[in-house]
TrEMBL record:
Keywords annotated in UniProt: Membrane, Transferase, Transmembrane, Transmembrane helix
GO cellular component labels: membrane
Protein name: Putative CDP-alcohol phosphatidyltransferase class-I family protein 3
Family under the similarity heading: Belongs to the CDP-alcohol phosphatidyltransferase class-I family.
An MF annotation (GO) of this entry: phosphotransferase activity, for other substituted phosphate groups
Organism of derivation: Morus notabilis
Major place of residence: membrane
Spans traversing the lipid bilayer: 40-60, 72-93, 99-117, 164-180, 200-219, 231-250, 256-279, 291-313, 325-346, 358-377, 389-406
Subcellular location: Membrane
Amino acid sequence: MGYVGAHGVAALHRYKYSGVDHSYAAKYILQPFWSRFVNFFPLWMPCANFFPSLVNMRVWNLDSGLFFSPNMITLTGFMFLVTSALLGVIYSPQLDSPPPWWVHFAHGLLLFLYQTFDAVDGKQARRTNSSSPLGELFDHGCDALACAFESIAFGSTAMCGRDTFWFWVISAVPFYGATWEHYFTNTLILPAINGPTEGLMLIYVVHFFTAIVGAEWWAQQFGKSVPFLSWVPFFNGRTIFMLMTPNILLNKSYEIFYLNLLLVILQVFNFSVFSPLCVHNVYKVVQARKGSMLLALAMLYPFAVLLGGVLTWDYLSPSDIIANYPHLIVVGTGLAFGFLVGRLILAHLCDEPKGLKTGMCMSLLYLPFAIANALTARLNDGVPLVDESVVVLGFCVFTVALYLHFATSVIHEITTALGIYCFRASEERWSFSGQAKNDDSCDLIR
């Protein structure tokens, strides 16, 4: 199945990225650091002797040497988060028990490295004159998957258990909204306070803090964790985690008073501030083009169905799948989300919106089967037709296979169309510019 048509190939050759980052933390603190850090990456290194089996392959073409490409930096940064998530699952299988202190420290360090590598890949592209539409798709695609893997890492640090899923939601909602907005406005605008900068900084500070005080800090009574607030009646007898858990929704205990204050605040911000702002910006563009706002809003439908489908499956599940398999649910849903984001970005790069919404819905095909299987438990004394552990594992296998097919196919089609390589620059495009500029442009995407 081809993902890029003839019109898309022509659009790829014309495409120019536009983005800006208004973050003060990035401008005055991180940008100077990133501009120096990128110089640690080599522009070129000989490697035909090390990878002879990959010589002349379209992905590498290592007959003369390996260009340390931006995509290689992006992939390396993404693998830091995969490693972090694996550590979380190994030492806290259901993300509800405290891992060793060094795991929290590793989570923080790996997230910091991910943020750094994710920022300097754009600078490396400018150093070597190797910017391309593939770089944007590769970068943003890894970022979409990163939402899931970092949610797992944070879930193990704060012992969130089933509520790890909600931390994925609060990262996925603004991410999808920003991608949807970028599709129409053609410019990715990061506000003064944004997730890729301040959001990640806050999270790795939490990881480092937990390495010092221990994960039990989140579970002990609030008066012991924060003694100077122990006199406040609302906090008396509650734990930090009780004040950070959205039990009002789909939690079998329905302990409304243990509402997760942090998640509620973030979700309110998402739906009352960020989401209306995205909709308003898209509305202005659609009106200027005399288009249909209903068709624009329809692009939100696949994500809404994905989120609603997983929550419906969990509600009907006799085995509480999000509580018993939080890592598998987050990974499976995260990969399906990555497919949605990838299709949306590809349609933007190729200017090919036709069939976009139906194509995106391919990642949702497994959910009706999972929901129907959960419903059979209502007719069979609480026992589903297929064991839900198998169904959850099948969900992950399905989304992994779908995403890998999409990623490998699109990389092959774009590299062939543009005459480039994924992890190496074409000889005629090499242009070593030395030191990277310290600018305010968005370095998350090339």
